[in-house]
Design a protein that fits this description.
The complex is a heterodimer. By secondary structure, chain A is mainly α. Chain A has one domain. Chain A has a two-stranded antiparallel ribbon with strand order 1-2. In chain A, helix 2 runs parallel beside helix 4. By secondary structure, chain B is α/β, with parallel strands linked by helices. In chain B, strand 11 and strand 12 form a beta hairpin. Classes of the chains: A mainly alpha, B alpha/beta.
Amino acid sequence: MTAIQVFVNGILLGGTYVLIAQSLNLIFGVMKVVNLAHGGFIVIAGLFTFWAVNRLGIPPLVALPIVFIGGAILGALLEPLIIEPLMGRGKQSELLSLIVTFGLNYVLTQIALFSFGTDYVSVPYLQQTFNIGGVIISGALLLTGVFAGAITLLLYFGLKYTYVGKSLLAASQSTIGAQSCGINVVRVRAIAFAIGVALAAVAGALLIIVQPMSASSSDNLTILAFVVIALGGLGSYKGATVAAFLLGVVQAAVGYLLGGNIESVLPFVLLILIMLMWPRGIQRST
Amino acid sequence: MSAPHSSRGSVVRHKGGKLAPLLACVLFTLAAIGIPAFGSAYTIQLATDIVQAIVLAYAWNLLGGYTGYISFGHVSFFGIGAYTMAMLVLHASIPWYIAVFCGGAVAVLVAALVGPIMLRLRGILFALGMLGLARILETLFTDWTYPGGAAGTVLAGTLTPVAVYALMVLIAVTAFATNFFFMRSGFGLDAMSIREDEDAATALGVSTTKVKTIVFAISALFPALAGGLTAWNRSFIDPPSAFDPTIDLLTIVFVLFGGIGSLWGPLVGASFLMLVGELLLVRLPTLKLALYGVIVIAIVLLLPGGIISLVNRAGWLKRKPVLAPPHLPGGADPQTQGQDSKAAGHDERPVLELRNLSVRFGGHVAVDNVSFEVDTGEILCIIGANGAGKTTLFNAIAGAVPLAQGCVRLHGRDITALPLSRRVHLGIARTFQIPRLLVDLTVWENVLLAARHGRQSHRAVEHTAWVIQAVGLEELWLAQAATLSPGRQRELELARVLAAQPDIVLLDEVMAGMTGDERERVRQVIRQLPQLGVRAVICVEHVISAVADLSNRMLVLDFGHKIAHDVPDKVLNDPAVVKAYLGDVA
């Protein structure tokens, strides 16, 4: 029974990883930018949700659309200001945007520290658990899992079947090609970044109901998200989903067998191993 | 793409001579001696912090500034140095000053072992990998109780502030000297070539993995020494302070702000920002870090060269081209220079020999059963319509495509099975359709890099000077490669090929897209090649008129078949050739 419980825990953990990773995936897929401020956005949105729930008495699910819109506006403002000027310089763009988002992450983290303090906090919500044949499932984790699935499906089908989505895909394949088809690539990138930040914010608002979070969690969240999308083959939504569940299960098993500290360092070890051994992701290499 | 500048390019000029660096040294020495002599305890501590920031900035600059490998986890070595020192002092009762050096040695060792693995990652992947490494180490030391675990360890640090300060200054001066060495030496040039274009550097004979690893190991030394000294000075060590990611942020901010890859940037950036941070924001540590974040963004967007690039614009503290003499030395006689070693052992065998060579791409036969020889002193030109198989034949000689049948012999030796890199060592050099120059470096450095391969330093300098004059770039020898016109860039590429002293030069459409003037200059260089030590030249060209009077023989390909191979006059009047080019004159 324990093995099944560990497996189910891993799957539920994987659900939160899907949530954390897909927005980073979108921004990388379209812009080839590894957004190191990703964790910063998640943390700010999460702590804001905590604040809104405790101080304003808003239910977490009402806070969701607020952080979504707030994130979208923030992303739409930041992209033209600090990312767009670096685009179109090939390999150099990747490195420069990495440095810029590295700086942005510090700004966001410090703002979060300044506004919300250094404590680890969590929002108690959907605390009841379901016992299905001896396997215990937390309601909050189930909710995040549902949202993670919905976001992945929306991204997948939205990119495939809507005009905006197709423009995003076109822009990610070739800037010049997309431009010569009449796509405003500059606007498309701003949209991608705005959606990416908005989804990161949603992830933050949901994550805080399943695990404690503080301003200093941002780096770990960014790395975790990058591990997932790197494992899934950078830019692949299906790959990232598979990778997230895989990582969740492996991490739950390692945590159960070897203890919490090894569990928490696992993403970093995997990060280096994956980049060295499967630089194009597991899905595409096998 | 470089903007079409005038064909003259822009020459790097120096103003202020040695005055500015001298002034900087004097100022630094005054500060270094003045602070402990007259400063309060607070001043000395602040000065020590600033000097430590300078140490870390210079160490990071070695890797990030010269080889272009941006590390987000250099604090790993700071922590390794600190922990090695602490463990040796606590558990082996080794005096702290020896322990600090042991910490440095361990960090170098770790870097030398980890380097070849981590440095396989390029660009963003390396940056993220280093970030991961630092977090792994932090967790490791949190879990490991021997050096103190999560709670940390108290050390019996007994040092006067002045002694710590003096030692830190010593480390800083060494770190600076290392940067100075990188800026002025051939080894530094190798490192810079990796930053500019790692693949091109490899093709020019730079052992990139070795150079990267050495730089990585050296840049690990200084943070480790600083880490050991600081931990001893603080009398306490724990994982969060030893592997503090903020240290990396600060280091990167300082180097970027001062000027990445420059000699003076890290010093300027670290001193200035540390003072500003201390004086203005001592009460608002949160805001201080946020401000540093903003500075990183602003510098990358607005002033990528950092503060030092502003100073450079005024003509001060500019980078000097590596190993460049004050004036270009007079050209030695090409006859003695170029052919000294090769004239001996001259044989009658053809330089290059192709036998029944075929290349297939799936069902398509790109080159069909082609045989020919190239003799010493010959310039052979391969012509043909689009899709005739010219470039494929070329790639087959260079070793870039596998053969379906046939063999290639160099001086009678069968090289069919040898890979591209071995063929380069044996003396087959080629140009590319798009020149891959190291655009931020000067003409001099581009050529020197190729000339350094297998030569002693002073011989390489002589050879470089001679090659630059041989191809007619002497007026532009200190110009930045990016500022050259496309034609001049071709000449520079030719110069680089020549500097490696190849036996055979393969020229891939070097005259494509050139103006008449530029084409004439390149033709002049090609005509000279046999006198410059090159045994044979094979060129692929579209413009027949540009090569007709240049080549000794011409080879015409048509749909992969050799339809003519003779002196230009005969080839151009051959009915089969005319038919292939112009169609049937019915």
